[in-house]
Structure formats: structure tokens, C-alpha cells
């Protein structure tokens, strides 16, 4: 079980902490990429349905009906950006967090504190937002049914953004809504990494199968955080679906427009909340379980190789 602390993100007594002259560990990057790739493929249908609900305040039935009308090609539209982005995103998020924690432990020996886990998560979330904000921007434009004729392909969107002046290319093009994405990703990662491992380690003491504590921990944390930040996701989806100067609203105006479109009811801001629970639970549960188990196997192999070299 994980009580032996072989997972690198929480190893309060990880031997690597005694060998910090190694500047960067790539194991968590590779495992994070693989786990994110797998879960993105599994959960994309649910994600796209939620996006339509966020954008148009549709019920589940209405969103699914809209997607059915667009056919298989329309349904698959927009899958490439999240697949690529979240694979790289997993590598950056887990890799950065793991290595930042190892760096922090140079200054404060002993178990990783809640403050260190939260701060490392916050920084990894900020880096994630800066690196992959443009992917989300393109994805949101592609998945908006109102833009199909105007922007039939990813290339057509890139051409539009590149036609702007340099400053507007970032503010109105690739990084529209950046402050919102920084807030969501930074806060989300800080909360996720703060509570993921303590919950997993607590469940590990109950003699459960090795994969189950990580699955439950990821599901519970991912669901709770996603539900908490869901209204912010609604605002991001609406802000990033705007293309062109004539369609651009400033943040307060965009927030007011979303509030009016939802009938000034908080419950309508949570349209898609039921599917959110399913998607977040599956996504973060699988990602966390695959990540922790794969890193556990990787660490065991490293220990075996080290033992064999000593025998030789």
C-alpha cells in the first residue's frame, strides 16, 4: 500500500529528498502526460456536452440533441486541442509541482507542509494557465456551434488571431480571459495538491486495494474543486467564445451579460453541474490513480536497479 510513501508528490521521507543536487526529475512529467492523455480520451464526450450547457444554458437532453444533429464529424470537432493540451498539461502540472516540492524541502527538512503543497500547486497552476491558455481559447471557439461557418478549422481561427496587431493578438486573441484562467487554474491546483495526498494516505491505512485510495482521493477532490469553480468556468467559456473587436466585452460587462442570460439565478449558473460531477469524478479519479500507481511502479523499478548495481 501507499503507506510506504513511494508516490513522489507526497513523499515526506522520499530518498530523493536526500539527493537534491539532481536538478529535475522527469518521471513525474512522463507519468503525468500518460495519465492525462488516457483520461482525456475517455471523458471528452462528457466535457463537450457540459461546454454546450455552459455556453447556451441548455439541459442535458438539449445539449445531447444539439450534438447529435451535428453528426460524428461535428462531435469530434475540437478534440485535438484538448488532447494535445492536456497531455502536455499533465506533464507540466505534475512535473512542476513534484520538483517544486523537492526544491522547497531543501529549505524545510521533514514532511511536506500544507503551505508548501499549496504554494507549489499555485505556481504549477499559473504556469499551466500561461502555457496552455491559447489551447483552451482555440478549443472554446471550435466547440461553439455559432462559429462553425465562420471558423470551420483550427487554422482559420489562427489566421484570425494572427491578423490582429501584436498587442491585440495576445489580449483579444490567444490570451483572452487570461486573468480568469490564472485564477481558476492557480486556485484549483493549490486545492487539489493540498488535499489529494492526505486523503489518499488516510484511506491507505484501511487495507484497501492499492489503486482505490488514489481513485477516491482524486474523485472527491476533483469533484469538489470543479463544483466550487464551475461558475468561473461558465464565465471563461463565454468570454473565450468571443472573436473579433466588435464582439469583445470587457470583463464586468461579460459577467453581467452571463448573469442576465441565466435569468439572474445562481442555479442556472450551474447548468451542467450533474455532468460536471460525473466528468470531474472520472477524470481526476482516473488521472490520480494512474499517476500514483505508475509512479509507484517506476520508483520500485528504480530501487531494484539500484540494488542490482550495488550487488554487482
Automatic annotation (TrEMBL):
The yes or no answer to whether the keyword Mitochondrion is present is yes
PANTHER family given for it?
SD08549P, SOLUTE CARRIER FAMILY 25 MEMBER 53
Q: Where are the transmembrane segments?
A: 24-47, 174-195, 215-237, 268-291
UniProt cross-references to Pfam families, sorted A to Z: Mito_carr
Solcar repeat windows: 23-103, 112-202
Intracellular or extracellular location(s)? Mitochondrion inner membrane
Is Translocase one of the keywords UniProt gives this record?
A: no
What's the encoding gene here?
Answer: SLC25A53
Keyword annotations for this protein, in alphabetical order, are:
Membrane, Mitochondrion, Mitochondrion inner membrane, Repeat, Transmembrane, Transmembrane helix, Transport
Q: Which InterPro entries does the record match to this protein? A: MCP_dom_sf, MCP_transmembrane, Mito_NAD+_Carrier
Listed name of the protein: Solute carrier family 25 member 53
Q: Which membrane topology describes this protein?
A: Multi-pass membrane protein
Molecular-function annotations in GO: NAD transmembrane transporter activity
**PROSITE patterns for this protein:** SOLCAR (PS50920)
Q: Which GO terms describe its cellular component?
A: mitochondrial inner membrane
Q: Which family does it belong to?
A: Belongs to the mitochondrial carrier (TC 2.A.29) family.
